[in-house]
């Protein structure tokens, strides 16, 4: 349940407290307008089935939660404290969203800018974070440990990271898929990507079946499937786009050629993911971002450094805070650029309003593109 407590109340509640309370139970209201926001269903995705306006509350015990949840919550809290200590509120809130997926403190206007610019996915921990964690652990311990031991450490870290990030759908998907891939290597078996997707989704829905209605889960899985299905064909199309100007060909050197290849790769991934989530995004929001090519291309360049430097800065802040402050200064600049990219949403014709598609139209869209 979601408890509503009077702001004047002097009682201080902390994570893990065992409490006894009395009050009035309020069942969440469903949407009255067809296609409108359904608050009741949204709360179900959070495993909340009602609201209670508290009249009386009593603390029966402190720190009664599972010790894993206890330390995961403590680490999450410490990360927030360190980030808030080194950055101003707006940038701290964004970095916290990027690192651990907590976006509660981000202002609604800024969230809207991210959403319209089609870059709100950077505020959700996902496969990108998992990739950087695996790379980081490999760089730190590869020479000291064997591959088998290293893989076990990666699995443990990924499980604990799921606890820290509150088991959001996108990170659970990415982490379970990564664990299955690593587990198959440990057992000398071949991994199947479709089985990994199915198993991760099954685990999430066992935890909470109502998460199937969550936009975050739908975008995460459809985006991943889109990259798997469409990436190769889209990359071939982009690869076939050749420069016809002889003068321009002569001026382009090897470094420029590599940069163009990277841009093609990023565009192929972006287009693949966008194609797969576009019908569902329009279904839920009735919006289509015109500039998603530009915003996603620009974000893909800076989001990696933000995540890597963010993780390093947080770790350093626990050891040598003055060194961490230097890294946070760089992060501040990168987050400023990220905010600037999100403001592309304020340009003319940045968004296109589209009527809610019918289910058969969405199915037809996927059938056409799959063929």
Structural commentary:
- By secondary structure, the protein is mainly alpha-helical.
- The protein has 14 helices and five strands.
- The protein has helices at residues 39-45, 67-86, 89-100, 108-116, 127-141, 147-164, 169-186, 193-207, 215-239, 246-251, 254-285, 292-319, 321-342, 359-370, and strands at 2-4, 18-26, 51-61, 287-289, 351-353.
- The protein has a three-stranded mixed sheet with strand order 1-3-2, with no helix packed on it.
- 26% of the residues are buried.
- The mean pLDDT is 83.
Write the layout of secondary structure elements.
Elements: E1 2-4, E2 18-26, H1 39-45, E3 51-61, H2 67-86, H3 89-100, H4 108-116, H5 127-141, H6 147-164, H7 169-186, H8 193-207, H9 215-239, H10 246-251, H11 254-285, E4 287-289, H12 292-319, H13 321-342, E5 351-353, H14 359-370
Parallel strand pairs: 1-3
Antiparallel strand pairs: 2-3, 4-5
Helix pairs in contact: 2-3, 2-6, 5-6, 5-7, 6-7, 7-8, 9-11, 11-12, 12-13
SSE order, as H and E?
Answer: EEHEHHHHHHHHHHEHHEH
Instruction: Give the DSSP E fraction (strand runs of 2 or more residues).
Output: 5-15%
Number of strands: 5
DSSP summary: helix tally: 14
Task: Give start-end ranges of low-pLDDT stretches.
Answer: none
- Average pLDDT for all residues: 83
- Helix content percent band: 55-70%
Main sheet properties: 3 strands, mixed
For the terminal residues, how far apart are their CA atoms? Answer: 46 Å
């Amino acid at each position: 349940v979601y408890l509503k407590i009077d702001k004047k109340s002097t009682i201080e509640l902390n994570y893990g407290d065992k409490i006894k309370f009395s009050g009035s139970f309020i069942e969440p209201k469903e949407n009255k307008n067809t296609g409108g926001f359904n608050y009741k269903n949204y709360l179900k995705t959070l495993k909340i089935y009602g609201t209670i306006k508290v009249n009386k509350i009593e603390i029966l015990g402190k720190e009664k939660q599972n010790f894993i949840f206890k330390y995961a919550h403590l680490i999450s809290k410490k990360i927030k404290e360190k980030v808030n200590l080194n950055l101003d509120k707006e940038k701290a809130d964004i970095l916290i969203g990027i690192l651990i997926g907590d976006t509660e403190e981000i202002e609604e206007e800024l969230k809207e800018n991210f959403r319209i610019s089609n870059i709100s996915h950077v505020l959700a921990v996902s496969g990108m974070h998992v990739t950087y964690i695996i790379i980081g652990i490999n760089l730190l311990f590869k020479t000291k440990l064997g591959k088998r031991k290293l893989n076990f450490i990666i699995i443990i870290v990924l499980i604990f990271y799921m606890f820290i990030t509150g088991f959001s759908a996108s990170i659970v998907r990415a982490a379970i898929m990564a664990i299955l891939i690593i587990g198959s290597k440990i057992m000398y078996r071949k991994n199947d990507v479709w089985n990994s997707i199915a198993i991760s989704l099954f685990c999430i829905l066992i935890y909470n079946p109502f998460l199937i209605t969550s936009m975050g889960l739908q975008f995460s899985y459809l985006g991943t499937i889109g990259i798997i299905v469409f990436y190769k064909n889209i990359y071939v199309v982009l690869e076939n786009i050749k420069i016809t100007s002889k003068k321009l060909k002569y001026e382009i050197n090897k470094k420029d050629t590599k940069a163009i290849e990277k841009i093609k790769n990023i565009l192929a991934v972006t287009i693949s993911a966008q194609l797969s989530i576009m019908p569902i995004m329009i279904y839920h929001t009735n919006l289509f971002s015109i500039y998603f090519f530009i915003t996603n291309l620009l974000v893909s360049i800076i989001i990696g450094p933000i995540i890597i430097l963010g993780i390093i800065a947080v770790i350093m802040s626990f050891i040598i805070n003055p060194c961490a402050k230097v890294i946070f200064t760089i992060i501040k600049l990168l987050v400023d650029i990220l905010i600037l990219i999100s403001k592309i949403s304020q340009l003319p014709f940045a968004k296109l309003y589209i009527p809610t598609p019918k289910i058969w139209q969405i199915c037809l869209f996927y059938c056409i593109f799959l063929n």
